[in-house]
Protein backbone atom coordinates (compact mmCIF):
# COMPACT_ATOMS: atom_id res chain seq x y z
CA UNK A 1 0.00 0.00 0.00
CA UNK A 2 1.38 3.39 -0.90
CA UNK A 3 1.81 6.12 1.69
CA UNK A 4 2.90 9.75 1.77
CA UNK A 5 6.27 10.02 3.41
CA UNK A 6 8.27 13.06 4.42
CA UNK A 7 12.05 12.75 4.13
CA UNK A 8 13.88 15.58 5.88
CA UNK A 9 17.36 16.05 4.47
CA UNK A 10 16.13 14.13 1.43
CA UNK A 11 18.56 15.84 -0.95
CA UNK A 12 21.59 14.61 0.98
CA UNK A 13 23.65 11.48 0.60
CA UNK A 14 21.61 8.96 2.62
CA UNK A 15 18.42 10.98 2.07
CA UNK A 16 18.48 10.86 -1.71
CA UNK A 17 19.06 7.09 -1.78
CA UNK A 18 16.18 6.67 0.66
CA UNK A 19 13.96 8.79 -1.61
CA UNK A 20 14.88 6.55 -4.57
CA UNK A 21 14.03 3.47 -2.53
CA UNK A 22 10.65 4.82 -1.36
CA UNK A 23 9.71 5.94 -4.89
CA UNK A 24 10.64 2.51 -6.24
CA UNK A 25 8.25 0.99 -3.68
CA UNK A 26 5.41 3.13 -5.03
CA UNK A 27 5.13 5.74 -2.28
CA UNK A 28 4.55 9.47 -2.53
CA UNK A 29 7.57 11.30 -1.17
CA UNK A 30 7.95 14.84 0.05
CA UNK A 31 11.46 16.13 0.69
CA UNK A 32 12.17 18.93 3.16
CA UNK A 33 15.68 20.25 2.68
CA UNK A 34 17.37 23.61 3.15
CA UNK A 35 19.97 22.68 0.52
CA UNK A 36 22.85 23.78 2.71
CA UNK A 37 24.67 20.56 1.91
CA UNK A 38 22.02 18.56 0.01
CA UNK A 39 21.85 18.98 -3.75
CA UNK A 40 18.89 19.18 -6.13
CA UNK A 41 20.81 17.08 -8.63
CA UNK A 42 20.73 14.16 -6.16
CA UNK A 43 16.96 13.95 -6.65
CA UNK A 44 15.13 12.57 -9.68
CA UNK A 45 12.33 14.28 -11.58
CA UNK A 46 9.40 12.14 -10.53
CA UNK A 47 5.61 12.62 -10.51
CA UNK A 48 5.38 11.23 -6.97
CA UNK A 49 8.17 13.43 -5.60
CA UNK A 50 7.57 16.89 -4.14
CA UNK A 51 10.33 19.17 -2.88
CA UNK A 52 9.83 21.71 -0.10
CA UNK A 53 12.70 24.09 0.56
CA UNK A 54 12.82 24.83 4.26
CA UNK A 55 14.54 24.21 7.54
CA UNK A 56 13.78 21.66 10.24
CA UNK A 57 14.55 24.31 12.88
CA UNK A 58 11.64 26.41 11.62
CA UNK A 59 8.25 25.34 12.99
CA UNK A 60 6.28 26.82 10.08
CA UNK A 61 8.46 25.01 7.52
CA UNK A 62 8.05 21.70 9.33
CA UNK A 63 4.27 22.18 9.65
CA UNK A 64 4.01 22.96 5.95
CA UNK A 65 6.06 19.91 5.01
CA UNK A 66 4.19 17.56 7.35
CA UNK A 67 0.71 18.45 6.19
CA UNK A 68 -1.01 15.29 4.88
CA UNK A 69 1.97 13.05 5.67
CA UNK A 70 1.66 9.64 7.36
CA UNK A 71 5.26 8.75 8.11
CA UNK A 72 8.54 10.63 8.36
CA UNK A 73 12.17 9.73 7.78
CA UNK A 74 14.16 12.40 9.58
CA UNK A 75 17.72 12.71 8.27
CA UNK A 76 18.30 16.49 8.14
CA UNK A 77 21.29 17.26 10.34
CA UNK A 78 24.57 19.02 10.78
CA UNK A 79 26.68 15.97 9.94
CA UNK A 80 30.21 17.06 10.76
CA UNK A 81 31.68 15.71 13.99
CA UNK A 82 34.51 18.29 13.73
CA UNK A 83 32.07 21.17 13.30
CA UNK A 84 30.11 20.04 16.34
CA UNK A 85 33.34 20.44 18.33
CA UNK A 86 34.16 23.90 16.94
CA UNK A 87 30.52 25.19 16.88
CA UNK A 88 28.59 23.20 19.51
CA UNK A 89 25.80 25.78 19.83
CA UNK A 90 25.04 25.84 16.11
CA UNK A 91 25.35 22.06 15.90
CA UNK A 92 22.88 21.57 18.76
CA UNK A 93 20.45 23.99 17.11
CA UNK A 94 20.39 21.80 14.01
CA UNK A 95 20.64 18.40 15.58
CA UNK A 96 18.75 18.73 18.85
CA UNK A 97 16.27 21.53 18.23
CA UNK A 98 15.69 20.43 14.62
CA UNK A 99 14.86 16.90 15.75
CA UNK A 100 12.64 18.18 18.53
CA UNK A 101 10.70 20.26 15.98
CA UNK A 102 10.20 17.19 13.82
CA UNK A 103 9.15 14.93 16.70
CA UNK A 104 6.80 17.50 18.16
CA UNK A 105 5.25 18.26 14.77
CA UNK A 106 4.83 14.52 14.16
CA UNK A 107 2.68 14.36 17.32
CA UNK A 108 0.62 17.43 16.32
CA UNK A 109 0.02 16.08 12.82
CA UNK A 110 -0.84 12.58 14.06
CA UNK A 111 1.93 10.76 12.15
CA UNK A 112 2.01 7.01 12.64
CA UNK A 113 5.82 6.64 12.58
CA UNK A 114 9.11 8.55 12.65
CA UNK A 115 12.40 6.88 11.73
CA UNK A 116 15.43 9.06 12.39
CA UNK A 117 19.19 9.06 11.99
CA UNK A 118 21.16 8.33 15.09
CA UNK A 119 24.82 7.35 14.86
CA UNK A 120 27.52 4.98 16.06
CA UNK A 121 29.00 8.19 17.48
CA UNK A 122 26.74 7.69 20.53
CA UNK A 123 29.04 4.85 21.68
CA UNK A 124 32.40 6.65 21.78
CA UNK A 125 35.38 4.40 22.47
CA UNK A 126 34.09 0.83 22.69
CA UNK A 127 34.63 -1.24 25.83
CA UNK A 128 33.72 -4.43 23.94
CA UNK A 129 33.28 -5.38 20.31
CA UNK A 130 31.00 -5.78 18.52
CA UNK A 131 29.01 -2.88 19.89
CA UNK A 132 25.51 -3.94 20.80
CA UNK A 133 22.66 -1.53 21.44
CA UNK A 134 22.87 -2.14 25.20
CA UNK A 135 26.51 -0.98 25.41
CA UNK A 136 27.37 1.96 27.63
CA UNK A 137 27.15 5.26 25.74
CA UNK A 138 30.09 7.62 26.16
CA UNK A 139 30.08 9.98 23.16
CA UNK A 140 33.36 11.74 22.38
CA UNK A 141 31.87 14.74 20.57
CA UNK A 142 28.91 17.11 20.80
CA UNK A 143 27.65 15.36 17.66
CA UNK A 144 27.49 12.01 19.45
CA UNK A 145 25.84 13.59 22.46
CA UNK A 146 23.27 15.34 20.26
CA UNK A 147 22.34 12.03 18.64
CA UNK A 148 21.96 10.45 22.07
CA UNK A 149 19.74 13.32 23.21
CA UNK A 150 17.60 12.72 20.11
CA UNK A 151 17.21 9.09 21.08
CA UNK A 152 16.06 10.14 24.55
CA UNK A 153 13.59 12.68 23.14
CA UNK A 154 12.19 10.11 20.72
CA UNK A 155 11.69 7.64 23.53
CA UNK A 156 10.04 10.31 25.65
CA UNK A 157 7.65 11.29 22.84
CA UNK A 158 6.71 7.63 22.63
CA UNK A 159 6.07 7.53 26.37
CA UNK A 160 4.17 10.83 26.51
CA UNK A 161 2.25 10.79 23.24
CA UNK A 162 2.49 7.24 21.90
CA UNK A 163 4.57 8.35 18.89
CA UNK A 164 6.14 5.30 17.25
CA UNK A 165 9.86 5.95 16.60
CA UNK A 166 12.97 4.10 15.54
CA UNK A 167 16.50 5.51 15.62
CA UNK A 168 19.11 3.87 13.42
CA UNK A 169 22.66 4.05 14.72
CA UNK A 170 24.44 4.31 11.38
CA UNK A 171 28.00 3.02 11.24
CA UNK A 172 30.32 4.17 8.40
CA UNK A 173 27.99 4.64 5.44
CA UNK A 174 29.53 4.86 1.96
CA UNK A 175 28.42 4.82 -1.64
CA UNK A 176 27.56 6.98 -4.65
CA UNK A 177 26.87 10.71 -4.09
CA UNK A 178 29.13 11.02 -1.06
CA UNK A 179 31.00 14.13 -2.04
CA UNK A 180 34.80 13.78 -1.70
CA UNK A 181 35.13 17.59 -1.90
CA UNK A 182 33.09 18.06 1.26
CA UNK A 183 35.17 18.79 4.39
CA UNK A 184 33.14 16.01 6.08
CA UNK A 185 33.72 13.35 3.44
CA UNK A 186 34.11 9.80 4.65
CA UNK A 187 37.33 7.90 4.15
CA UNK A 188 36.04 5.76 1.26
CA UNK A 189 34.98 8.76 -0.83
CA UNK A 190 38.40 10.34 -0.18
CA UNK A 191 40.40 7.22 -1.03
CA UNK A 192 38.44 6.49 -4.22
CA UNK A 193 38.96 10.08 -5.31
CA UNK A 194 42.71 9.92 -4.58
CA UNK A 195 43.22 6.67 -6.48
CA UNK A 196 41.17 7.79 -9.44
CA UNK A 197 43.38 10.85 -9.74
CA UNK A 198 46.61 8.89 -9.28
CA UNK A 199 47.27 10.36 -5.86
CA UNK A 200 48.41 8.50 -2.77
CA UNK A 201 45.66 8.18 -0.17
CA UNK A 202 46.57 9.81 3.14
CA UNK A 203 46.23 7.48 6.10
CA UNK A 204 45.97 9.06 9.54
CA UNK A 205 47.88 6.68 11.82
CA UNK A 206 49.13 3.24 10.76
CA UNK A 207 46.08 2.18 8.74
CA UNK A 208 45.34 -0.70 11.12
CA UNK A 209 42.20 1.00 12.43
CA UNK A 210 39.02 -0.77 11.43
CA UNK A 211 35.50 0.34 10.58
CA UNK A 212 32.18 -1.31 9.82
CA UNK A 213 31.42 0.03 6.34
CA UNK A 214 27.75 -0.09 5.29
CA UNK A 215 26.66 0.40 1.70
CA UNK A 216 24.17 3.24 1.29
CA UNK A 217 21.63 1.23 -0.74
CA UNK A 218 21.34 -1.20 2.20
CA UNK A 219 20.81 1.77 4.51
CA UNK A 220 18.08 3.09 2.21
CA UNK A 221 16.33 -0.30 2.15
CA UNK A 222 16.44 -0.55 5.93
CA UNK A 223 15.11 3.00 6.33
CA UNK A 224 12.15 2.12 4.11
CA UNK A 225 11.53 -1.15 5.91
CA UNK A 226 11.69 0.50 9.34
CA UNK A 227 9.11 3.11 8.31
CA UNK A 228 6.56 0.31 7.91
CA UNK A 229 7.45 -1.68 11.00
CA UNK A 230 6.36 -1.25 14.61
CA UNK A 231 9.69 -1.75 16.35
CA UNK A 232 10.32 0.93 18.91
CA UNK A 233 13.71 2.16 20.14
CA UNK A 234 17.16 2.10 18.54
CA UNK A 235 18.96 -0.30 16.24
CA UNK A 236 22.49 -0.50 14.83
CA UNK A 237 22.74 -0.20 11.09
CA UNK A 238 25.98 -2.07 10.49
CA UNK A 239 27.26 -5.14 8.65
CA UNK A 240 28.98 -6.88 11.57
CA UNK A 241 32.21 -7.04 9.52
CA UNK A 242 35.30 -4.93 10.14
CA UNK A 243 37.81 -3.78 7.52
CA UNK A 244 41.04 -1.93 8.13
CA UNK A 245 42.09 1.08 6.07
CA UNK A 246 44.94 -0.98 4.63
CA UNK A 247 42.42 -3.67 3.54
CA UNK A 248 40.38 -0.91 1.97
CA UNK A 249 43.32 0.47 -0.01
CA UNK A 250 44.26 -3.02 -1.19
CA UNK A 251 40.68 -3.68 -2.38
CA UNK A 252 40.53 -0.33 -4.17
CA UNK A 253 43.91 -0.85 -5.85
CA UNK A 254 42.64 -4.19 -7.20
CA UNK A 255 39.35 -2.75 -8.43
CA UNK A 256 40.90 0.34 -9.99
CA UNK A 257 43.95 -1.53 -11.28
CA UNK A 258 46.23 0.91 -9.52
CA UNK A 259 49.21 0.46 -7.23
CA UNK A 260 49.02 3.45 -4.95
CA UNK A 261 50.95 3.27 -1.71
CA UNK A 262 49.48 5.25 1.20
CA UNK A 263 51.10 8.32 2.67
CA UNK A 264 51.04 8.07 6.45
CA UNK A 265 50.22 11.10 8.56
CA UNK A 266 49.71 11.68 12.30
CA UNK A 267 46.60 10.01 13.73
CA UNK A 268 43.54 12.21 14.23
CA UNK A 269 43.03 13.19 17.82
CA UNK A 270 39.90 11.51 19.25
CA UNK A 271 40.03 8.86 16.52
CA UNK A 272 38.80 5.50 17.75
CA UNK A 273 40.83 2.42 16.83
CA UNK A 274 38.09 -0.09 16.10
CA UNK A 275 34.41 0.17 15.37
CA UNK A 276 32.15 -2.78 14.70
CA UNK A 277 28.40 -3.06 15.13
CA UNK A 278 26.47 -6.05 16.45
CA UNK A 279 23.74 -6.91 13.97
CA UNK A 280 21.46 -9.34 15.83
CA UNK A 281 18.73 -6.73 16.32
CA UNK A 282 18.97 -5.54 12.73
CA UNK A 283 18.57 -9.12 11.52
CA UNK A 284 15.70 -9.83 13.87
CA UNK A 285 13.74 -6.64 13.37
CA UNK A 286 14.45 -5.73 9.76
CA UNK A 287 15.87 -8.85 8.14
CA UNK A 288 19.09 -7.47 6.67
CA UNK A 289 20.60 -10.93 6.37
CA UNK A 290 23.13 -10.30 3.67
CA UNK A 291 24.41 -6.76 3.61
CA UNK A 292 26.47 -5.81 0.57
CA UNK A 293 30.09 -6.92 1.05
CA UNK A 294 32.71 -4.19 1.00
CA UNK A 295 34.10 -5.52 -2.27
CA UNK A 296 30.70 -5.51 -3.99
CA UNK A 297 29.85 -2.11 -2.57
CA UNK A 298 33.13 -0.61 -3.76
CA UNK A 299 32.54 -2.15 -7.19
CA UNK A 300 29.09 -0.56 -7.37
CA UNK A 301 30.50 2.79 -6.27
CA UNK A 302 33.25 2.74 -8.88
CA UNK A 303 30.86 1.69 -11.66
CA UNK A 304 28.45 4.42 -10.66
CA UNK A 305 31.23 7.03 -10.76
CA UNK A 306 32.27 5.86 -14.20
CA UNK A 307 28.67 6.18 -15.51
CA UNK A 308 28.30 9.58 -13.88
CA UNK A 309 31.45 10.84 -15.59
CA UNK A 310 30.32 9.41 -18.93
CA UNK A 311 26.63 10.39 -18.89
CA UNK A 312 25.97 13.08 -16.31
CA UNK A 313 24.04 12.94 -13.06
CA UNK A 314 20.54 11.88 -14.21
CA UNK A 315 21.63 8.74 -15.97
CA UNK A 316 24.21 8.08 -13.30
CA UNK A 317 21.71 7.72 -10.49
CA UNK A 318 21.43 4.36 -8.87
CA UNK A 319 18.24 2.42 -9.19
C1 LIG B 1 32.35 8.13 11.42
C2 LIG B 1 31.29 9.07 10.85
C3 LIG B 1 30.94 10.12 11.84
C4 LIG B 1 30.57 9.51 13.19
C5 LIG B 1 31.67 8.57 13.64
C6 LIG B 1 31.25 7.83 14.90
C7 LIG B 1 31.60 9.17 8.44
C8 LIG B 1 32.10 9.97 7.30
N1 LIG B 1 31.79 9.71 9.66
O1 LIG B 1 33.55 8.81 11.63
O2 LIG B 1 29.84 10.88 11.35
O3 LIG B 1 29.35 8.82 13.06
O4 LIG B 1 31.94 7.58 12.65
O5 LIG B 1 32.21 6.92 15.32
O6 LIG B 1 31.02 8.11 8.30
N2 LIG B 1 40.98 8.57 7.62
C9 LIG B 1 42.20 8.51 6.99
N3 LIG B 1 42.40 9.31 5.90
C10 LIG B 1 41.45 10.16 5.41
C11 LIG B 1 40.19 10.20 6.08
C12 LIG B 1 40.00 9.38 7.18
O7 LIG B 1 43.11 7.78 7.39
O8 LIG B 1 41.70 10.83 4.41
C13 LIG B 1 40.76 7.67 8.77
C14 LIG B 1 40.25 8.36 10.01
O9 LIG B 1 41.30 8.85 10.80
C15 LIG B 1 39.50 7.20 10.69
C16 LIG B 1 38.96 6.38 9.51
O10 LIG B 1 39.73 6.76 8.39
O11 LIG B 1 40.40 6.40 11.43
C17 LIG B 1 37.50 6.65 9.21
O12 LIG B 1 37.32 8.05 9.11
P1 LIG B 1 35.93 8.71 8.64
O13 LIG B 1 36.10 10.18 8.72
O14 LIG B 1 35.51 8.15 7.34
O15 LIG B 1 34.88 8.17 9.68
P2 LIG B 1 34.92 8.10 11.30
O16 LIG B 1 34.87 6.65 11.65
O17 LIG B 1 35.99 8.93 11.87
Automatic annotation (TrEMBL):
It comes from the Bacteria. Residues 5-234 form the NAD-dependent epimerase/dehydratase domain. Transmembrane segments: none annotated. InterPro entries: Epimerase_deHydtase (IPR001509), Lipid_A_modif_metabolic_enz (IPR050177), NAD(P)-bd_dom_sf (IPR036291). This is NAD-dependent epimerase/dehydratase family protein.
Amino acid sequence: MSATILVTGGAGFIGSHSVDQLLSEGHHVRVLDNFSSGKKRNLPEHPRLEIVTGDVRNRADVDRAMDGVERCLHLAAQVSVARSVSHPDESAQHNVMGTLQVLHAACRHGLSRVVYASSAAVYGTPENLPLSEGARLRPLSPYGLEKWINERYASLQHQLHGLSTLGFRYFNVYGPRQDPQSPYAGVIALFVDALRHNRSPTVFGDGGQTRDFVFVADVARMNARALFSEHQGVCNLATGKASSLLDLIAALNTLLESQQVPRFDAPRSEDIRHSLGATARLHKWFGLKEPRSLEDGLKALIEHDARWTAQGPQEGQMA
